[in-house]
Design brief:
By secondary structure, the chain is an alpha/beta fold. 37% of the residues lie in helices and 17% in strands. The strands form two sheets. A seven-stranded parallel beta sheet has the order 3-2-1-4-5-6-9, with helices on both faces. Strands 7-8 form a two-stranded parallel ribbon. Strand 5, helix 4 and strand 6 form a beta-alpha-beta unit. Helix 1 crosses helix 6, helix 2 runs parallel beside helix 3 and helix 3 packs parallel to helix 4. The longest helix has 20 residues.
């Protein structure tokens, strides 16, 4: 199976990249930065050469190169983590979030319509599209974004629905609670907690610790994408979280 992972250097992206690489799948990754060292990503010890399987491009400056690599590779499965991913900073430069997550992404998606062998395009979206809620939201809940970050993700999700209706583009969308596991960026809340405990420093939560959050472990992230690849029909959307 030929798999393209966009945003292969994100936490979930490198999990899936290493998973399919170790399983012998024909997988390539596109990411704005190079692979991390083995201290942060232990799995890279088993990779002797990233040439021809890892391409260092970004949506803003290298969109045409991303399209070219994709056309040459002709993937059967595309897993997409590309985009601006932080919520609070999107208020300071909303135009960057809209350009990256919507305008550039829309052009990229349009190029995928010409792929010959594409079976499924799977996008990692966010529950932020539903806004702030105290009740459970299901896949039929209406969008109510409350930040530029969420607006950009809501818009591209709706654009995917349009592509599915107009061109039968085989999209699947997964919306996830927070991730955690080995290899996650150290500024994220759970690695930060461990570092503070080990260094005996005060652990400070953004926002005063008033919000409650749910986290999904790395192995469960992998099995969720396996299910979307192997079990889901196109044009479906799924929410992933714990019962809490």
């Amino acid at each position: 199976m030929k798999i393209l992972i966009l945003g292969s250097g994100s936490f979930a992206g490198q999990l899936l990249f290493s998973h399919y690489l170790s399983n012998g799948e024909n997988v390539i990754g596109i990411n704005r930065s190079a692979p991390k060292d083995s201290a942060r990503w232990p799995w890279v010890k088993n990779v002797h050469n990233f040439k021809d399987i890892w391409y260092q491009y970004d949506l803003i400056n290298s969109l045409d190169s991303i399209i070219e690599v994709t056309n040459q590779f002709q993937p059967e499965i595309i897993i997409d983590f590309l985009g601006e991913g932080m919520v609070a900073p999107s208020w300071k430069r909303p135009e960057l979030w809209y350009e990256t997550n919507l305008t550039k992404k829309a052009k990229l998606l349009n190029s995928f319509l010409n792929l010959n062998n594409l079976r499924k395009y799977i996008r990692a979206s966010t529950p932020e599209v539903y806004g702030s809620n105290v009740d459970f939201q299901n896949e039929e809940s209406g969008f109510n974004p409350s930040t530029p970050y969420a607006v950009s993700h809501s818009a591209i999700d709706m654009h995917l629905r349009c592509l599915g209706n107009q061109y039968k583009f085989p999209y699947v969308i997964g919306r996830y609670a927070n991730f955690y596991g080995v290899g996650q960026q150290l500024y994220r809340v759970i690695p930060k907690l461990f570092l503070c405990c080990l260094s005996r420093k005060k652990f400070v939560l953004d926002g005063g610790g008033k919000s409650s959050r749910s986290f999904i472990f790395s192995k469960d992230i992998i099995t969720s994408f396996e299910a979307m690849i192997n079990l889901s029909e196109p044009f479906r959307e799924y929410n992933f979280s714990s019962n809490e």
